[in-house]
Structures are given as structure tokens and as C-alpha cells.
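Review form for a predicted model. The reviewer records the input and the model, then writes brief findings.
Reviewer: anonymous (R2)
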Amino acid sequence: MAQTPETPKRLPTPAFSTPSRELPQVIGETPEPANLPRTTGGIRETPPLPMVPSIDSPPRTDSPKRLPALGASPAPTRLPQPTPQPRADLTIKETETQAPSPIAYPSTYPSTGMALDFATPPIPAVATPTLTIADHNALPARLEPMWWNAQVQQSIGIGPATLPISIDALVQSALINSVQIQSLLTEPKIRRATIGVEQAQFDWHSFIESQFDDKSDPIGSILTTGSVDGRFEDQTWAAAAGLRQNNRLGGKLEVAQNGGSQRNNSQFLIPNPQGTTRLELNYTQPLLNGAGRFVNESRIVLAQLDFGATDDRTQARIQDQLIDVTNAYWELYLSRSQLLQRRKLLESARQIYQTLQAREGVDVLQRQILRAQVAVTGREAEVIRAQTEIRNSQARLRRLINDPELVAAMALEWTPQDQPLDFRIDISATASAQIALASRPEISEAMQRVKALSVQADVARNDILPRLDLLVRTYVAGLEENADTLGSWNRQFTDGRPSYGVGMLYEFPIGNRAAKGRLQRSRLELSREIHDFESTVEQTLLEVDIAVRETQTAYREMASKQRAVYAAAAEVQYLDERWRTLPTQQDSAILLLENLLDAQQRLGTEESAFATAQVTYALSWISLRRAMGTLLSMDKEPIGERPPAIAPTPELLEAAPTEPVPPPQRLPATASRYEGRTDQHEGVPR
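Model under review:
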């Protein structure tokens, strides 16, 4: 057993209001830091990290309470350790408090003297077992919550009231209020109207024609009137009414009722005056070029395919717009997390600065005080910047959503209610690729374009054929004297028989270069579009493959970042202990202070990096949904079961605060809308 060295003296820990000159005693000092890895029996392991009291907490008078250990490890010589047990969790201590004193909340890693007090208590976090070197590559099923996770959801004192928001509520509001999304939704409606325009080409058309002519021409032939005297006087009235239609086989049908009267001074007009009528039926049917439903309905099919491609393109753009909304939400979450971290870092520097000021003129150099002052002012600037980033994130959300309620709530503090994912998701790359091939709007749009060019190529192939039309005509006619048109109409059904005629029309351009050129162009365009479709499929599979890999990598990176936070916290704790029990050499004290401030800054950097990794993991899952094309329909995701939640046990948590803390004020009108809203809206793509 190594001999315990002499007890060194600590720097005082005064209250900020009235500095105390009493020197608290240190239980013991260890020559080597007890929280560094040690080798025991060929296996490297890390002992539990003890808690360090906050600067403003009173001296402890009783022995700390520890949790049973998970693994065997030698007890540090500085503090008494219980008998090693099969478990080794983090040490959780209870500190004596005097009313009114700040409420201490549990942390996910050892205390570093950087704790901040907030208006509302966060959700208690679960203590994290000490990691060993052998466990470095192990990937846990879920990660432990960090100290800022619950505090992000609550007021942090930057607004008069809070407005709880969630991703689901923001997305629903964006689908309804966003001017960008409303503009995108207009384009499919325009294409749908085009379908009706093309279908109208087969509608029946009615027509009415009427004309009256009163002529007075010179007589140039005796056959005009039977005489060469005077002028030829002729009064004619003609009218026609009927229906026309182009059918889906390419034929043209016309039914017309003609009628009129004529009066002149010719001897050859018998009877004079007279009324005439004729009921005609004319039909023209293409037999080669332009024949068939496929050719004549091609414009409708092309309009429908264009509508489908536009709808797929709109869905893709809406998903991109919703990704922007989600990114803005997580930017707000990250900004609030970083503000809490910067505040905690600032408070730690202020505690060091006030401690040094209390010892000024005793055993503290002016250089130490100036160095601490530089750290305080620099971290104050970081807090100011973090507060500005929160306002900027809220402004970006408001711009993307365009909700009038959000515009009216710009002065409030928006509190994100959705937490980043903290568990591993088992994803099947093959199943994800299959879903992407069936659901990705870009693939569907490319397929619609291939179908459209295939239709155009078939129409161009039909244009190669010569024009050969069948002409059919039949009519009945009537005649009545005294310009009696109505009597003539009655007689057209009673006198005589129907007349008819049948004919053929043939036409073919010599060389037919125009039709051949159109066919060649259509085939080349179709070949190009097929290659583009294959490229789109390959690009989709690549994006899914990358998204799956990025999701898995993001979780491993987040787990590694959490271990880095724990390591940085252990370094701060060790340096904080050494600085408070520093030796008498002033050069060593300055170096220890510099190292402590740098270690605190590194801890803040690692915490910010972990928060960024949390957001990156959440966004990687959104990117995977986008790559699979299921961002608006969430029923085809090949994910595994969510790991069971880790329920905190009473022995893992500190005692709850005795005095309840009132929650921050919240506006009921706006909060009820944005917190957990799941209403459905018609006309919005899901």
C-alpha cells in the first residue's frame, strides 16, 4: 500500500457576496490522476470519476454516497472507495445545500464546476457507466441523454414567453401557408387543366350560317336571263345549321340542314321565286395516316403523362422545401443547445475569475487575473453570438413557413419539443433501394418522360404512311314555290329518295422527308431519355446507398463524440482539482490556470461537436427518407424496432428539489396549435 502524501492546501472557495478567508482542508492528494486508464492483469480499464463540488457550494462535511461499481478497479488513494462490485457506474454525490441555494441537477458526466442554474429543471438524465479502452469500439443500442437535452425544450430566458414547436406542426403549417409550396402546387393544377383542353377536341361543335345577297349585274349572256335587255336582278338568302365532330378513330362527321330562297328576273328559274332545303350527312375516315384511337388520343395521353411528370416533380420540390423546414428546425435546436453550452462555459470562467479576485494580493498574480478576465470576455462574446443565431434561426423558420401566427410570435422564445434520435436504427440497404425504386418521384418523372417520347415516336411512325381517306356523303333535298322554305323542308322527306356519294382521297409527299425526319428525331429523343432514365435510377441507388451509410456513420460518430465529451469532462475535472490544490510555485500556478481554461474551452467545443452530431444524425435520417422518396408517406420504411427506453432508477438520480420551480409563461393560443398538432388538411400532399 502506497503511503499517503501530506495534505496540501486548497485555494479558498468564497461566497461571491462576502469572500471568506478560511482555507478548507483537502482530504488527500494522489500523485497520479485517479481518472486515467490503469493496467490491471493485462486489461486496461478506467476507474469511476469522482464528482467535484461547484464553486458556490458549501464545503462538504459528510462522506460522499457512491453507486456500486460495475467492474473491478483499484480504489483511488485520494478519496475512500467502497468495496469493488460487479458494476462500475459514475459516482453521484449529494451535496448539502442552504436555503436559498441553487438547485443541482444530475449530469451525464462528472461535474466540472461549470453547472448553470435555469428557471425550470430539466428531465433527469441517466448516469453513464465509465467507458474502458476495450469498449471504445463498442456501439451501444442507444446513447445516454446529455444535460442540455431537456433544457432546450424549456425557457432559457431570451423571450417574454415561450412558443412550443414541433416538426410535425411546422411541416403541416408549411404545407398550408408556405407561399413557395403553394406556388409549387399550382403547376400540377395547370397541367391537369391541359388534359381537359386536349379531351375537348372530340366534343361536338354546333354551327349556324346565314347570308343574304342582292345582286344587280349586267347581262353578258342571253343564257343568264333569256334576254339581253336590262340587268340581271337576283336576290338570294341561304342559311345552314348543324353539328360537327372529330371522333377518336380519326373520322370527321358533319350533319347540316341547309335552307334558303331565291328570286330573280331570269326565265330559267322555275319556280320563281322558290324555296329550297337540303339535309346533308358528310363523313371522312382516314384509313392509313391519322387512323386509329392511339394516334388521335395521343395528345390526351401526352397531356396525362405531362401532368404525371409535373406532379412527381412537384412532389420532389415539396420534399426539398420540407427538408429546408426541418433543417431550420434543427438549426434552432442546435443554436439553443450551443447557447446553453456557451453560458455554462462563461459561468465556469466567471467562477475562476471571482476566485482569483478574492485571492488578489495574497497568492495570486495579476497575470492570472488578466488571463481569467480575457476568458470571461471572450466567452461573453460567444454567448452574444449564440443568442443572435437563435433569432436568425427563428427568422428563417418564419420565412419558410409564412404562418401568420409565427409572424406575430417573432418576439417570443420558440422552444423545440422534438429531441434528436438517440438510438441506433437497423436499416436494410436492399429494402431501402427497393422502396426508392417504387417511391422516388424522380424515377417516376423520368418514366413518364420515357412513355411520352415513346408515344411521340409511335405517332411519328404513323406519319410515315400515306394519306388515304374514305369519303361518304348523303343528302335529301326539297323545293317549293313562292319562296316557301318551310314547305320545302317538309317535302325533302316526302318527295324522291336520298342521294349519296362515296369516294377516296390519296395523298403522299414525294420522298416523304419531313415525316422520316420527325420519326428519326423522335427515336433519338427516346433513346436519349432511356439513357437519362437509367442514369436517374443509378443516381437514386447511389443516393440511397450513401444515405444508408451516412445514417449508420452519423450514429457511430455521435457515439464517439459522446465519449470525447466524457474524456474532456474528465480532463477538466482533473485540472480543476490540481488547480485548487496547486503548489506554491507561481509558474506552475499560471500554467495550471492556462491548462484549465484551455481544457474548459475544449470541453465546450466537444459538447458543441456532440450537439452538432446529434443534429447530423437526425438530418441523416431525414435525408434517407428523402432518398427513398417516403418523406411525405411514412409507411414503407425498413427500420428495426426502437430499443426500449432506459428507465432511470431512483438510485441513479440525485434527490429531487424540495421547492417546485414555476414553469415559464406560455401563450395558450399559439402553444395549443404548435405542440403536438396532428390535424389533417384536405388538398395537401401527404
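Findings: Confidence is low (pLDDT under 50) at residues 1-136, 634-686.
Further findings: DSSP finds 14 helices and ten strands in the chain.
Recommendation: see findings above.
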